[in-house]
Amino acid sequence: MNAATAQIELRGRQVGFEVRRSKRRRSIGLLIDERGLRVAAPPSASELAIENLLREHAAWVLRKLDEWQLQQRSTLHGQNGEQIACCGEWLTISCDDAVDKPQRSGDRLLVGPSALKPEAVRRRITSWLKMEAITLFKQRCEVFSNRLGLPAPQVRLSSARTRWGSCARDADGGRIRINWRLIQTPLPWIDYVAAHEVAHLRQMNHSPAFWRVVDELVGDHRPLRAALRRDAGTYLRL
Predict the structure, then answer these.
(1) Which candidate, 104, 168, 183, 216, has a CA 20 to 30 Å from the CA of 202?
(2) Along the chain (238 residues), what's the average pLDDT of each consecutive run of 10 residues?
């Protein structure tokens, strides 16, 4: 796989990116993560085609780059006194020698003994958030599926970096995966993602009929969707 770096101006802003070409690629794809913007392309893709695709998706590219920059600046280090969000509520991380595993106490998250190293604190908080996530996600998906007269789907956690959720239908009703990091965001946003995936159990598309199902479950989905896209990075520390 060949790689090269380049730059492009998107809405008055210079953006650097890496192009990786592979014979296995059949189309141009965009990926943004902690390493920045990367373009995966087949050998036959021209520079102009790549630039046109980036300009077409300029708003998405700039938004995602800003989200990652915000997340990197606010990454949790695992130190006493830092804050972590759960369902949009900020909790202050506190070490407590009387606690052997993380537990919430008011607006504090007690993580364990003061002798814990920062990386151990991060691992404990991550595990706690995942347990909170799977409990809540299962509950909300079951509520929404019941409203639609559907059997409760299987719900699992994902660690995807580019999407909040996914859904697959099967003979048992369906399987839904939701990014565990979503648990850090406000509950209305969590409900939007859960409703979005449950709605796919009825409509495996993004047609007007699909969005009507989502609206049936959470009301007007548009402000929730916009807020999640715009402000999710404000809450993500892990």
Answers:
(1) 183
(2) 84 92 92 87 95 95 82 78 96 94 96 94 97 98 96 94 87 88 97 97 95 97 92 87
